[in-house]
Protein backbone atom coordinates (compact mmCIF):
# COMPACT_ATOMS: atom_id res chain seq x y z
CA UNK A 1 0.00 0.00 0.00
CA UNK A 2 2.74 2.44 1.00
CA UNK A 3 4.72 1.78 -2.17
CA UNK A 4 3.06 4.71 -3.90
CA UNK A 5 4.75 7.12 -1.49
CA UNK A 6 8.10 6.11 -3.01
CA UNK A 7 7.13 8.05 -6.09
CA UNK A 8 7.99 11.70 -5.60
CA UNK A 9 5.39 12.79 -8.16
CA UNK A 10 2.67 11.16 -6.02
CA UNK A 11 3.97 12.90 -2.88
CA UNK A 12 4.14 16.24 -4.69
CA UNK A 13 0.64 15.68 -6.08
CA UNK A 14 -0.69 14.87 -2.62
CA UNK A 15 1.00 17.92 -1.07
CA UNK A 16 -0.39 20.29 -3.69
CA UNK A 17 -3.74 18.46 -3.72
CA UNK A 18 -4.25 18.75 0.04
CA UNK A 19 -3.53 22.50 -0.03
CA UNK A 20 -6.08 22.92 -2.83
CA UNK A 21 -8.53 20.65 -0.96
CA UNK A 22 -8.32 22.97 2.06
CA UNK A 23 -8.82 26.30 0.27
CA UNK A 24 -11.30 25.20 -2.43
CA UNK A 25 -14.36 24.65 -0.16
CA UNK A 26 -13.52 27.72 1.90
CA UNK A 27 -13.90 29.88 -1.20
CA UNK A 28 -16.62 27.58 -2.57
CA UNK A 29 -18.83 28.13 0.49
CA UNK A 30 -19.15 31.85 -0.25
CA UNK A 31 -19.43 31.39 -4.02
CA UNK A 32 -22.19 28.78 -3.71
CA UNK A 33 -24.20 30.78 -1.18
CA UNK A 34 -23.88 33.95 -3.23
CA UNK A 35 -25.03 32.05 -6.36
CA UNK A 36 -21.59 32.61 -7.91
CA UNK A 37 -20.83 28.92 -8.53
CA UNK A 38 -20.36 29.49 -12.25
CA UNK A 39 -17.67 32.06 -11.70
CA UNK A 40 -15.22 29.27 -10.81
CA UNK A 41 -15.80 27.73 -14.23
CA UNK A 42 -15.37 31.09 -15.96
CA UNK A 43 -12.16 31.86 -14.09
CA UNK A 44 -10.85 28.42 -14.95
CA UNK A 45 -11.26 29.16 -18.66
CA UNK A 46 -9.60 32.53 -18.15
CA UNK A 47 -6.73 30.67 -16.47
CA UNK A 48 -6.38 28.51 -19.57
CA UNK A 49 -5.83 31.67 -21.62
CA UNK A 50 -3.23 32.63 -18.99
CA UNK A 51 -1.57 29.23 -19.38
CA UNK A 52 -1.46 29.71 -23.16
CA UNK A 53 0.18 33.14 -22.71
CA UNK A 54 2.74 31.60 -20.35
CA UNK A 55 3.57 28.81 -22.78
CA UNK A 56 3.80 31.22 -25.71
CA UNK A 57 6.23 33.55 -23.92
CA UNK A 58 7.95 30.72 -22.03
CA UNK A 59 7.04 32.06 -18.57
CA UNK A 60 5.88 29.79 -15.69
CA UNK A 61 2.30 29.03 -16.78
CA UNK A 62 1.06 29.03 -13.17
CA UNK A 63 2.06 32.70 -12.80
CA UNK A 64 0.40 33.81 -16.05
CA UNK A 65 -2.72 31.77 -15.17
CA UNK A 66 -2.92 33.52 -11.78
CA UNK A 67 -2.39 36.96 -13.34
CA UNK A 68 -5.02 36.40 -16.05
CA UNK A 69 -7.58 35.03 -13.58
CA UNK A 70 -7.11 37.73 -10.93
CA UNK A 71 -7.21 40.62 -13.42
CA UNK A 72 -10.28 39.16 -15.14
CA UNK A 73 -12.03 38.50 -11.81
CA UNK A 74 -11.84 42.19 -10.93
CA UNK A 75 -13.06 43.11 -14.44
CA UNK A 76 -16.00 40.66 -14.14
CA UNK A 77 -17.01 42.13 -10.79
CA UNK A 78 -16.80 45.70 -12.11
CA UNK A 79 -18.89 44.75 -15.13
CA UNK A 80 -21.47 43.15 -12.82
CA UNK A 81 -21.58 46.19 -10.50
CA UNK A 82 -22.03 48.55 -13.47
CA UNK A 83 -25.42 46.80 -14.04
CA UNK A 84 -25.07 47.50 -17.76
CA UNK A 85 -24.51 43.78 -18.26
CA UNK A 86 -26.34 40.97 -16.39
CA UNK A 87 -24.09 39.04 -14.00
CA UNK A 88 -24.33 35.71 -15.86
CA UNK A 89 -23.84 37.46 -19.22
CA UNK A 90 -20.59 38.93 -17.87
CA UNK A 91 -19.52 35.37 -16.99
CA UNK A 92 -20.46 34.07 -20.45
CA UNK A 93 -18.48 36.85 -22.14
CA UNK A 94 -15.33 36.07 -20.15
CA UNK A 95 -15.75 32.28 -20.40
CA UNK A 96 -16.08 32.10 -24.17
CA UNK A 97 -13.79 35.09 -24.80
CA UNK A 98 -10.90 33.61 -22.84
CA UNK A 99 -11.42 30.16 -24.35
CA UNK A 100 -11.28 31.76 -27.80
CA UNK A 101 -8.07 33.59 -26.86
CA UNK A 102 -6.54 30.36 -25.53
CA UNK A 103 -7.38 28.45 -28.72
CA UNK A 104 -6.00 31.22 -30.97
CA UNK A 105 -2.75 31.46 -28.96
CA UNK A 106 -2.35 27.68 -28.99
CA UNK A 107 -2.89 27.51 -32.76
CA UNK A 108 -0.48 30.45 -33.32
CA UNK A 109 2.25 28.50 -31.53
CA UNK A 110 1.35 25.27 -33.31
CA UNK A 111 0.27 23.54 -30.14
CA UNK A 112 3.38 24.48 -28.09
CA UNK A 113 4.51 20.85 -28.17
CA UNK A 114 2.82 20.33 -24.80
CA UNK A 115 -0.04 18.13 -23.90
CA UNK A 116 -3.03 20.44 -23.60
CA UNK A 117 -4.82 17.54 -22.00
CA UNK A 118 -2.72 18.10 -18.83
CA UNK A 119 -4.12 21.59 -18.43
CA UNK A 120 -7.67 20.68 -19.32
CA UNK A 121 -7.97 17.71 -16.96
CA UNK A 122 -5.00 18.07 -14.62
CA UNK A 123 -1.97 15.86 -14.32
CA UNK A 124 -0.21 15.40 -11.01
CA UNK A 125 2.74 13.89 -12.87
CA UNK A 126 3.57 17.34 -14.24
CA UNK A 127 3.45 19.07 -10.80
CA UNK A 128 6.95 20.41 -10.14
CA UNK A 129 8.46 21.06 -6.69
CA UNK A 130 8.41 24.78 -7.51
CA UNK A 131 4.67 24.48 -8.21
CA UNK A 132 4.13 22.91 -4.76
CA UNK A 133 6.02 25.82 -3.18
CA UNK A 134 3.97 28.41 -5.09
CA UNK A 135 0.70 26.60 -4.29
CA UNK A 136 1.75 26.38 -0.62
CA UNK A 137 2.64 30.07 -0.25
CA UNK A 138 -0.38 31.39 -2.15
CA UNK A 139 -2.66 28.84 -0.46
CA UNK A 140 -1.63 30.22 2.93
CA UNK A 141 -2.28 33.74 1.60
CA UNK A 142 -5.85 32.72 0.64
CA UNK A 143 -6.38 31.10 4.06
CA UNK A 144 -5.15 34.17 5.95
CA UNK A 145 -7.24 36.54 3.79
CA UNK A 146 -10.43 34.52 4.32
CA UNK A 147 -9.78 34.14 8.06
CA UNK A 148 -9.26 37.91 8.40
CA UNK A 149 -12.60 38.87 6.89
CA UNK A 150 -14.51 35.64 7.56
CA UNK A 151 -17.26 37.20 9.68
CA UNK A 152 -17.81 40.06 7.27
CA UNK A 153 -18.02 37.62 4.34
CA UNK A 154 -20.63 35.57 6.22
CA UNK A 155 -22.71 38.70 6.86
CA UNK A 156 -22.28 39.86 3.25
CA UNK A 157 -23.36 36.47 1.90
CA UNK A 158 -26.38 36.31 4.20
CA UNK A 159 -27.71 39.87 3.82
CA UNK A 160 -25.64 42.26 1.70
CA UNK A 161 -27.86 45.29 2.31
CA UNK A 162 -27.73 45.04 6.11
CA UNK A 163 -24.00 44.37 5.96
CA UNK A 164 -23.61 47.60 3.99
CA UNK A 165 -25.70 49.55 6.52
CA UNK A 166 -23.52 48.28 9.36
CA UNK A 167 -20.51 49.88 7.66
CA UNK A 168 -18.96 46.75 6.15
CA UNK A 169 -17.07 47.66 2.92
CA UNK A 170 -19.17 45.33 0.76
CA UNK A 171 -17.75 46.40 -2.61
CA UNK A 172 -14.17 45.86 -1.49
CA UNK A 173 -15.04 42.46 0.03
CA UNK A 174 -16.86 41.33 -3.13
CA UNK A 175 -13.76 42.12 -5.20
CA UNK A 176 -11.50 40.43 -2.63
CA UNK A 177 -13.65 37.28 -2.66
CA UNK A 178 -13.67 37.01 -6.43
CA UNK A 179 -9.91 37.69 -6.63
CA UNK A 180 -9.27 34.95 -4.03
CA UNK A 181 -11.51 32.63 -6.07
CA UNK A 182 -9.38 33.43 -9.13
CA UNK A 183 -6.22 32.61 -7.19
CA UNK A 184 -7.65 29.32 -5.92
CA UNK A 185 -8.84 28.30 -9.38
CA UNK A 186 -5.42 28.97 -10.96
CA UNK A 187 -3.62 27.08 -8.22
CA UNK A 188 -5.88 24.06 -8.70
CA UNK A 189 -5.15 23.71 -12.44
CA UNK A 190 -2.22 21.26 -12.09
CA UNK A 191 -4.32 18.94 -9.92
CA UNK A 192 -7.81 18.84 -11.39
CA UNK A 193 -7.41 20.84 -14.59
CA UNK A 194 -9.38 23.70 -16.07
CA UNK A 195 -12.53 21.74 -16.81
CA UNK A 196 -12.91 20.12 -13.39
CA UNK A 197 -11.96 22.89 -10.98
CA UNK A 198 -15.45 24.20 -10.36
CA UNK A 199 -16.49 20.68 -9.29
CA UNK A 200 -13.89 20.65 -6.52
CA UNK A 201 -14.94 24.12 -5.38
CA UNK A 202 -18.67 23.48 -5.51
CA UNK A 203 -19.45 19.78 -4.84
CA UNK A 204 -18.07 19.34 -1.26
CA UNK A 205 -19.91 22.54 -0.23
CA UNK A 206 -23.20 21.49 -1.81
CA UNK A 207 -22.87 18.07 -0.14
CA UNK A 208 -22.24 19.67 3.28
CA UNK A 209 -25.22 22.01 2.77
CA UNK A 210 -27.51 18.96 2.53
CA UNK A 211 -26.80 18.21 6.19
CA UNK A 212 -28.42 21.49 7.32
CA UNK A 213 -26.12 22.58 10.12
CA UNK A 214 -24.69 25.99 11.07
CA UNK A 215 -22.19 27.95 8.96
CA UNK A 216 -18.99 26.90 10.71
CA UNK A 217 -20.05 23.24 10.88
CA UNK A 218 -20.92 23.28 7.17
CA UNK A 219 -17.43 24.58 6.35
CA UNK A 220 -15.77 21.92 8.55
CA UNK A 221 -17.79 19.12 6.87
CA UNK A 222 -17.03 20.50 3.37
CA UNK A 223 -13.31 20.60 4.29
CA UNK A 224 -13.34 16.97 5.46
CA UNK A 225 -15.18 15.83 2.30
CA UNK A 226 -12.83 17.80 0.06
CA UNK A 227 -9.63 16.51 1.68
CA UNK A 228 -10.99 12.95 1.66
CA UNK A 229 -11.96 13.22 -2.04
CA UNK A 230 -8.52 14.54 -3.04
CA UNK A 231 -6.46 11.99 -1.08
CA UNK A 232 -8.63 9.00 -1.99
CA UNK A 233 -8.88 10.26 -5.60
CA UNK A 234 -5.10 10.48 -6.03
CA UNK A 235 -4.51 7.09 -4.37
CA UNK A 236 -7.30 5.40 -6.35
CA UNK A 237 -6.09 6.90 -9.62
CA UNK A 238 -2.61 5.47 -8.95
CA UNK A 239 -3.92 1.93 -8.54
CA UNK A 240 -6.55 2.11 -11.29
CA UNK A 241 -4.26 4.06 -13.60
CA UNK A 242 -6.94 6.69 -14.17
CA UNK A 243 -6.86 10.50 -14.36
CA UNK A 244 -6.36 11.90 -10.84
CA UNK A 245 -8.52 14.99 -11.48
CA UNK A 246 -11.41 12.95 -12.85
CA UNK A 247 -11.20 10.39 -10.04
CA UNK A 248 -11.18 13.12 -7.35
CA UNK A 249 -14.29 14.74 -8.82
CA UNK A 250 -16.10 11.39 -9.26
CA UNK A 251 -15.45 10.49 -5.61
CA UNK A 252 -16.75 13.91 -4.48
CA UNK A 253 -19.77 13.42 -6.69
CA UNK A 254 -20.41 9.91 -5.35
CA UNK A 255 -20.41 11.26 -1.77
CA UNK A 256 -22.87 13.96 -2.83
CA UNK A 257 -25.22 11.39 -4.40
CA UNK A 258 -25.10 9.18 -1.28
CA UNK A 259 -25.74 12.12 1.09
CA UNK A 260 -28.48 13.56 -1.11
CA UNK A 261 -30.25 10.20 -1.40
CA UNK A 262 -30.05 9.35 2.29
CA UNK A 263 -30.79 12.80 3.71
CA UNK A 264 -34.51 13.29 3.25
CA UNK A 265 -35.98 16.68 4.03
CA UNK B 1 -41.10 56.23 31.50
CA UNK B 2 -39.46 58.49 28.96
CA UNK B 3 -36.60 60.55 30.32
CA UNK B 4 -35.23 61.18 26.87
CA UNK B 5 -34.17 64.49 25.38
CA UNK B 6 -36.59 64.67 22.47
CA UNK B 7 -34.86 67.70 21.03
CA UNK B 8 -31.77 65.80 19.78
CA UNK B 9 -31.99 65.02 16.07
CA UNK B 10 -30.72 61.55 15.27
CA UNK B 11 -31.71 61.76 11.61
CA UNK B 12 -32.26 65.02 9.76
CA UNK B 13 -33.39 65.29 6.15
CA UNK B 14 -33.39 68.72 4.48
CA UNK B 15 -35.06 69.19 1.09
CA UNK B 16 -34.13 65.66 0.04
CA UNK B 17 -35.03 64.42 -3.44
CA UNK B 18 -34.15 61.10 -5.04
CA UNK B 19 -34.68 59.52 -8.46
CA UNK B 20 -33.23 56.40 -10.05
CA UNK B 21 -32.82 58.28 -13.34
CA UNK B 22 -32.55 61.96 -14.22
CA UNK B 23 -36.18 61.97 -15.40
CA UNK B 24 -38.00 60.30 -12.52
CA UNK B 25 -38.31 61.52 -8.95
CA UNK B 26 -39.27 58.92 -6.38
CA UNK B 27 -39.17 61.37 -3.46
CA UNK B 28 -39.23 65.13 -3.79
CA UNK B 29 -38.16 67.86 -1.39
CA UNK B 30 -38.63 65.92 1.87
CA UNK B 31 -37.68 67.65 5.10
CA UNK B 32 -38.09 65.83 8.40
CA UNK B 33 -36.22 65.02 11.58
CA UNK B 34 -36.22 61.94 13.79
CA UNK B 35 -35.66 62.94 17.41
CA UNK B 36 -34.22 60.78 20.13
CA UNK B 37 -36.96 58.61 21.67
CA UNK B 38 -39.34 59.03 18.72
CA UNK B 39 -41.30 56.14 17.31
CA UNK B 40 -41.84 57.41 13.78
CA UNK B 41 -44.16 55.61 11.41
CA UNK B 42 -43.71 56.22 7.68
CA UNK B 43 -46.84 55.46 5.70
CA UNK B 44 -47.95 56.00 2.13
CA UNK B 45 -49.23 54.19 -0.95
CA UNK B 46 -47.22 51.58 -2.85
CA UNK B 47 -44.66 53.33 -5.02
CA UNK B 48 -44.99 56.47 -2.89
CA UNK B 49 -41.35 56.32 -1.82
CA UNK B 50 -41.50 54.91 1.76
CA UNK B 51 -38.72 52.37 1.33
CA UNK B 52 -36.71 54.79 -0.81
CA UNK B 53 -36.91 57.37 1.98
CA UNK B 54 -35.66 54.78 4.47
CA UNK B 55 -32.79 53.77 2.19
CA UNK B 56 -31.78 57.41 1.80
CA UNK B 57 -31.74 57.70 5.62
CA UNK B 58 -29.50 54.61 5.79
CA UNK B 59 -27.09 55.82 3.11
CA UNK B 60 -28.02 52.92 0.80
CA UNK B 61 -29.24 55.48 -1.75
CA UNK B 62 -27.58 58.83 -2.32
CA UNK B 63 -30.01 61.76 -2.60
CA UNK B 64 -29.98 63.63 -5.88
CA UNK B 65 -30.71 66.84 -3.97
CA UNK B 66 -30.71 67.95 -0.34
CA UNK B 67 -28.77 66.84 2.73
CA UNK B 68 -28.96 63.94 5.15
CA UNK B 69 -27.44 64.28 8.62
CA UNK B 70 -27.03 61.35 11.01
CA UNK B 71 -26.33 62.12 14.68
CA UNK B 72 -25.51 65.70 13.70
CA UNK B 73 -22.99 64.74 11.02
CA UNK B 74 -23.33 64.88 7.26
CA UNK B 75 -23.95 61.29 6.08
CA UNK B 76 -20.76 61.32 3.95
CA UNK B 77 -18.72 61.92 7.11
CA UNK B 78 -20.71 59.56 9.34
CA UNK B 79 -18.90 56.38 10.38
CA UNK B 80 -20.59 55.26 13.60
CA UNK B 81 -22.87 52.79 11.87
CA UNK B 82 -23.16 50.69 15.00
CA UNK B 83 -25.50 53.39 16.35
CA UNK B 84 -27.98 52.43 13.66
CA UNK B 85 -29.83 49.12 13.51
CA UNK B 86 -31.67 47.99 10.39
CA UNK B 87 -34.35 45.37 9.87
CA UNK B 88 -34.79 44.99 6.11
CA UNK B 89 -37.98 44.18 4.26
CA UNK B 90 -36.61 40.96 2.85
CA UNK B 91 -35.83 39.66 6.34
CA UNK B 92 -38.96 37.55 6.11
CA UNK B 93 -37.96 36.22 2.69
CA UNK B 94 -34.32 35.25 3.17
CA UNK B 95 -32.95 32.00 1.78
CA UNK B 96 -34.23 29.29 4.19
CA UNK B 97 -31.43 26.95 3.08
CA UNK B 98 -28.69 29.34 4.15
CA UNK B 99 -26.73 27.33 6.74
CA UNK B 100 -26.80 29.69 9.67
CA UNK B 101 -27.94 29.29 13.27
CA UNK B 102 -29.99 31.87 15.17
CA UNK B 103 -26.92 32.70 17.25
CA UNK B 104 -24.80 33.21 14.11
CA UNK B 105 -27.40 35.59 12.63
CA UNK B 106 -27.62 37.69 15.80
CA UNK B 107 -23.81 37.78 16.14
CA UNK B 108 -23.69 39.60 12.77
CA UNK B 109 -25.14 42.60 14.61
CA UNK B 110 -21.95 42.96 16.64
CA UNK B 111 -19.63 43.22 13.62
CA UNK B 112 -20.21 46.92 12.92
CA UNK B 113 -19.16 47.86 16.44
CA UNK B 114 -15.93 45.89 16.29
CA UNK B 115 -14.61 46.77 12.81
CA UNK B 116 -12.72 44.54 10.40
CA UNK B 117 -10.30 41.81 11.51
CA UNK B 118 -11.76 41.52 15.02
CA UNK B 119 -12.22 38.31 16.95
CA UNK B 120 -15.44 37.49 18.76
CA UNK B 121 -15.06 38.38 22.43
CA UNK B 122 -16.92 37.26 25.53
CA UNK B 123 -18.60 40.70 25.55
CA UNK B 124 -19.89 40.07 21.99
CA UNK B 125 -21.31 36.71 23.01
CA UNK B 126 -23.00 38.26 26.03
CA UNK B 127 -24.52 40.99 23.78
CA UNK B 128 -25.90 38.26 21.52
CA UNK B 129 -27.46 36.45 24.49
CA UNK B 130 -28.95 39.66 25.88
CA UNK B 131 -30.43 40.55 22.49
CA UNK B 132 -31.95 37.06 22.18
CA UNK B 133 -33.40 37.40 25.67
CA UNK B 134 -35.00 40.73 24.76
CA UNK B 135 -36.90 39.10 21.92
CA UNK B 136 -37.61 35.87 23.85
CA UNK B 137 -35.62 33.69 21.49
CA UNK B 138 -32.68 32.55 23.63
CA UNK B 139 -33.82 28.92 23.72
CA UNK B 140 -33.76 28.84 19.89
CA UNK B 141 -30.14 29.99 19.61
CA UNK B 142 -28.78 26.71 18.23
CA UNK B 143 -31.61 26.21 15.73
CA UNK B 144 -31.18 26.95 12.03
CA UNK B 145 -32.68 30.35 11.15
CA UNK B 146 -34.36 28.83 8.08
CA UNK B 147 -36.30 26.36 10.25
CA UNK B 148 -38.11 29.10 12.20
CA UNK B 149 -41.53 30.63 11.51
CA UNK B 150 -41.80 34.05 9.84
CA UNK B 151 -42.59 35.72 13.18
CA UNK B 152 -39.63 34.08 14.91
CA UNK B 153 -37.33 35.07 12.05
CA UNK B 154 -38.45 38.68 12.44
CA UNK B 155 -37.58 38.49 16.14
CA UNK B 156 -34.06 37.30 15.41
CA UNK B 157 -33.61 40.15 12.93
CA UNK B 158 -34.65 42.56 15.66
CA UNK B 159 -32.19 40.77 17.98
CA UNK B 160 -29.46 41.18 15.35
CA UNK B 161 -30.14 44.93 15.25
CA UNK B 162 -30.17 45.06 19.09
CA UNK B 163 -26.86 43.17 19.41
CA UNK B 164 -25.04 46.14 17.89
CA UNK B 165 -26.22 48.34 20.78
CA UNK B 166 -27.92 50.82 18.44
CA UNK B 167 -29.55 54.09 19.45
CA UNK B 168 -32.03 53.90 16.60
CA UNK B 169 -33.55 51.02 14.63
CA UNK B 170 -35.09 51.44 11.18
CA UNK B 171 -37.56 48.76 10.10
CA UNK B 172 -38.84 48.29 6.56
CA UNK B 173 -42.26 46.58 6.45
CA UNK B 174 -41.18 44.11 9.13
CA UNK B 175 -44.42 42.15 9.40
CA UNK B 176 -44.93 41.27 5.73
CA UNK B 177 -45.89 37.61 5.53
CA UNK B 178 -46.47 37.27 9.28
CA UNK B 179 -49.88 36.23 10.72
CA UNK B 180 -52.02 38.74 12.64
CA UNK B 181 -51.47 37.45 16.20
CA UNK B 182 -47.68 37.29 15.64
CA UNK B 183 -47.85 40.83 14.29
CA UNK B 184 -49.52 41.97 17.54
CA UNK B 185 -46.72 40.40 19.60
CA UNK B 186 -44.16 41.96 17.31
CA UNK B 187 -45.56 45.48 17.70
CA UNK B 188 -45.82 44.94 21.45
CA UNK B 189 -42.10 44.10 21.43
CA UNK B 190 -41.27 47.26 19.46
CA UNK B 191 -43.25 49.40 21.92
CA UNK B 192 -41.41 47.75 24.80
CA UNK B 193 -38.04 48.51 23.18
CA UNK B 194 -39.08 52.13 22.58
CA UNK B 195 -40.27 52.56 26.19
CA UNK B 196 -37.90 50.41 28.22
CA UNK B 197 -34.65 50.74 26.28
CA UNK B 198 -35.35 54.31 25.08
CA UNK B 199 -34.72 53.08 21.56
CA UNK B 200 -35.66 55.43 18.76
CA UNK B 201 -37.62 53.61 16.06
CA UNK B 202 -38.51 54.35 12.46
CA UNK B 203 -41.12 51.98 11.05
CA UNK B 204 -42.06 51.84 7.39
CA UNK B 205 -45.41 50.12 7.02
CA UNK B 206 -48.44 49.98 4.77
CA UNK B 207 -50.63 49.09 7.75
CA UNK B 208 -52.18 52.48 8.50
CA UNK B 209 -54.17 51.28 11.48
CA UNK B 210 -51.14 49.77 13.20
CA UNK B 211 -48.94 52.78 12.53
CA UNK B 212 -51.60 55.18 13.85
CA UNK B 213 -52.03 53.05 17.00
CA UNK B 214 -48.40 52.23 17.76
CA UNK B 215 -46.23 55.18 16.78
CA UNK B 216 -45.74 58.60 18.36
CA UNK B 217 -45.11 60.42 15.08
CA UNK B 218 -46.33 59.84 11.56
CA UNK B 219 -44.84 60.86 8.26
CA UNK B 220 -47.13 60.28 5.34
CA UNK B 221 -45.36 60.22 2.00
CA UNK B 222 -46.58 60.12 -1.56
CA UNK B 223 -43.49 61.19 -3.51
CA UNK B 224 -43.38 64.22 -1.31
CA UNK B 225 -44.07 64.56 2.39
CA UNK B 226 -47.77 65.33 2.76
CA UNK B 227 -48.13 65.01 6.50
CA UNK B 228 -45.76 64.96 9.42
CA UNK B 229 -47.26 65.17 12.91
CA UNK B 230 -48.73 63.02 15.65
CA UNK B 231 -51.17 60.16 14.97
CA UNK B 232 -53.90 61.89 17.02
CA UNK B 233 -54.04 64.77 14.57
CA UNK B 234 -53.85 62.50 11.58
CA UNK B 235 -57.55 61.85 11.11
CA UNK B 236 -58.49 65.50 11.52
CA UNK B 237 -55.84 66.90 9.22
CA UNK B 238 -56.77 65.17 5.99
CA UNK B 239 -53.14 64.08 5.61
CA UNK B 240 -54.08 60.58 4.52
CA UNK B 241 -56.33 61.84 1.77
CA UNK B 242 -53.46 63.98 0.57
CA UNK B 243 -51.12 61.00 0.63
CA UNK B 244 -53.38 58.47 -0.96
CA UNK B 245 -55.52 60.82 -3.02
CA UNK B 246 -58.70 59.02 -1.90
CA UNK B 247 -60.66 58.50 1.31
CA UNK B 248 -58.97 56.41 3.98
CA UNK B 249 -61.60 53.68 3.82
CA UNK B 250 -61.23 53.34 0.09
CA UNK B 251 -57.46 53.42 0.35
CA UNK B 252 -57.40 50.51 2.78
CA UNK B 253 -59.46 48.36 0.46
CA UNK B 254 -57.31 49.20 -2.55
CA UNK B 255 -54.10 48.75 -0.64
CA UNK B 256 -54.92 45.27 0.62
CA UNK B 257 -55.85 44.23 -2.87
CA UNK B 258 -52.41 45.17 -4.14
CA UNK B 259 -50.49 43.87 -1.13
Which CATH C-level class of chain A is it? Mainly Alpha
Q: What percent of the residues of chain A sit in helical stretches (DSSP H or I)? A: over 70%
Query: What is the name of the CATH architecture of chain A?
Result: Orthogonal Bundle
Report the major sheet of chain A.
Answer: none
Strand content of chain B: 15-25%
Query: Biggest sheet of chain B, open or closed, and with what strands and sense?
Result: 6 strands, mixed
Largest interface: A-B, 28 and 36 residues
Structural Rg of chain B: 18 Å
**What is the domain tally of chain B?**
1
Query: Which secondary-structure class do the elements of chain B indicate?
Result: alpha/beta
Structural class by helix and strand composition of chain A: mainly alpha
Q: Kindly report the spatial arrangement of strands forming the biggest sheet of chain B.
A: 6-7-8-3-9-10
The domain tally of chain A reads 1
Structural overview:
The complex is a heterodimer of chains A (265) and B (259). Chain A is mostly helical. Chain A has one domain (2-258): ABC transporter involved in vitamin B12 uptake, BtuC (Orthogonal Bundle), CATH 1.10.3470.10. Chain A is built from 12 helices and no strands. In chain A, helix 1 packs antiparallel against helix 9 and helix 9 (170-192) packs across helix 10 (197-209). Chain B has a single domain, classed as 3-Layer(aba) Sandwich (Rossmann fold), CATH 3.40.50.300. Helix content of chain B is 36%, strand content 22%. In chain B, the strands form 2 sheets. A 6-stranded mixed beta sheet of chain B has the order 6-7-8-3-9-10, with helices on both faces. Chain B has a 4-stranded antiparallel beta sheet with strand order 2-1-4-5, with helices on one face. In chain B, strand 7 (168-172), helix 6 and strand 8 (200-204) form a beta-alpha-beta unit. The two termini of chain B are 36 Å apart. The A-B interface holds A 33, 148-149, 151-152, 154-155, 157-159, 161-169, 208-209, 212-218 and B 58-60, 79, 81-82, 84, 86, 88, 90-91, 94-95, 97-101, 103-105, 107-109, 111-112, 116-118, 120, 142, 144, 146-147, 160, 164.
